[in-house]
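User: Second chain of the day. Same drill as before.
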Amino acid sequence: MSENKTSRRNFLKKTLIGAAAFTIVPRHVLGGKGFLAPSDHLTKGVIGVGAMGRGHFKYAGTKTVAICDVDTRHLALAQKALGGGVTEHHDFRELIQNPEVDIVHIATPPHWHGLMAVEAARSGKDIWCEKPMTRTIGEGKKVKEAVAQHGNIFRLNTWFRFDANFYGMNVPVKKIKKLVDTGMLGWPLKVTISKHTGFDWKFYWVGREDLPVEQAPKELDYEMWLGPAPHKPYSTHRVHTTFRGYWDYDGGGLGDMGQHYLDPVQYFLGKDEESPIKIEVDAPQQHSDAVGTWRKITYTYADGCQIVLDGAGTEEGLAYIEGPKGKLYKGFVSDIPDMERKLAQYPDPAPQMTDFVEACRTRQKFALNEQNGYYSATLVNLGLAALRLNRTLKFDSEKQVFVDDEAANRLIDQPMRGPWII
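Assistant: Same format as last time:
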């Protein structure tokens, strides 16, 4: 009798714990009242409703039902833009646990991306994350692992590998990939990303080394804005529209534009599951807090392919892609005779899932997801590591660690300020 009572208590205890663990679930996995009919909009909660967040409220096929920000002024502007009636949250964890939210859209500074994405994945939500995917390589690994474990649909919000004309090339990326895949340019290839090939590195995203100490405005919860970042005195230039100039939150022009520019290159070079093995940098010594500029960053892959980030922009007439058999210039101009006619004879690249709403409904992996997005975010973070240390770094593509470099490896998993942990 005693054993039966004990067993029954243990069974009930485990059942209640299990039930508690599954109280927060997205509507697409529920039946009955919470079931999402195919004709319904997916609901979205947006974390970070500054200018970027507010710009994504009305994505086709979704309805914004919840917003979160640590600045009450942002929340007021967001409510006005949405016409009111939307649930407000100060703490992002409350939004993530809101059972009415299907998709969590993360539009905060990058030092929050990894932590929020992992929390959303654990809560069963699908995730739409602004670029860069994460501020560190280690955080990217954690996001990739969490999404794989919990089966979420993840979208990274840079779209050039599958949509729109690609900056100075003035054609969609699939046309560049088609050319590369034909072999007409030869192999290995060198890709140069420069203002002369149509790409602006936005060096106005630099930090100030003489920040004044100021009083945080009453509408901003500065401690929560900092979150996992080290505590530093408030200054207007440190937050909101100019945060990109500080290492604790982003990585300047490379952090801002790097994944836009590099993800398509990774795609058309066929490097979605591979990282470069050497990263070289030519730059002034960087300040410990404020991001500066750089002249050149060069990535080299094991097969000899290179990606060159030309920040100085002193060389004009550069080819965007240079191979042993030919070159491709800005505007999709080539030195290969009759290139366009020859290209038309080859098949187009394989189709991709480019409708995020459809991906969420059908549970198909989105074109730019937690896996290939991790590798292009790592390209950005490899360049930033070399820049911060101001030296050439060697990287093990298989193990995803730096080779014989303790200081560089400390940048992979940077500590978070308590109580935050990923």
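The mean pLDDT is 92.

User: Great, on to the next one.
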